[in-house]
Amino acid sequence: MQLNTTHITKNPIILASAIMSVIGWLIAFVGACVIGKAGLLWWIVIYELLLLGAIFFSIYRNVFHHHQIMFLAFLGISISLLTTTISGLMGYDSAGNQAAGAGAVILIVMQFFWVIVFGSSEESIVFQIVYSGFTFPRSQNTAAIGLHGSPKESKVALSSPEATGYAHQQHQQVSMVSVYQDSPDMAQQKLQNPTAIALHPYTANPDDPNEISFEKGEKLEILNKSGNWWKAKKEDGTEGIVPSNYFPQ
């Protein structure tokens, strides 16, 4: 699973879990400060800070997929520590213990969610539900699985010089075909490529020059309507590939 900051900021579910995790840690930290000599609780607070920081930093640096198994293991350890902590803290009535326990509860719920999401493959129903309507990036070595469970066609193949030349040649050939004439006085009309209206806005991946960005409601001319990535042309003449699930089928 190749995550980057876009998959957090543009996915409300993942963004909410990240914010709630930070809030949970802050509440646990304040509770530990109120308790003072909290012993094991301080170690858990520091452990959670390092774990959250490492996960967010790896996503920011776009290297999360290199350490995914390691993070899942550390999340499992964290859930075990938090479970032990909650059972110990909730037995006291002091404000510090109650606050630390509440923070630990928030953290453990969010981390259970992360284990389910980060531990699920891109073909799983969990992944498809969480990232419904969101285009996940391809791996550099293998083609990723599309949102509907079918292999995503290589974007490089669609945008290679041969494919681009072929599509351009086909477009020229179609444009040269005249509409059937009923009378000699009827003017010839060229066959037009279909157009589609974007259902959602999309920002092109900066690492892939073949993709193009578009806004919600923008009309694009579809040059090649095959597979999960279509070749399209904007009204300003910009051509590139776009995710098909952002347009009416």
UniProtKB/TrEMBL annotation:
**Family annotation (InterPro entries):** Grb2-like, SH3-like_dom_sf, SH3_domain, Sho1_SH3
- UniProt key word Membrane: yes
So where does this one cross the membrane? 12-34, 40-59, 71-92, 98-118
Its chief place of residence is membrane
Give the bilayer topology: Multi-pass membrane protein
Note the PROSITE patterns from the entry. SH3 (PS50002)
Q: Any one cellular component term from GO for this entry? A: plasma membrane
Q: Which keywords accompany this UniProt record?
A: Cell membrane, Membrane, SH2 domain, SH3 domain, Stress response, Transmembrane, Transmembrane helix
Which part of the chain is the SH3 domain? 191-249
The UniProt entry, under Pfam families, shows: SH3_1
What subcellular locations does the record give? Cell membrane
Keyword hit for Membrane: yes
- Domain of life of the source: Eukaryota
UniProt lists the family membership as follows: Belongs to the SHO1 family.
The record's listing under PANTHER family reads: PROTEIN ENHANCER OF SEVENLESS 2B
User: What name goes with this protein?
Assistant: SH3 domain-containing protein
Supply the source organism for this entry. Parasitella parasitica
Gene (name only): PARPA_08591.1 scaffold 33405
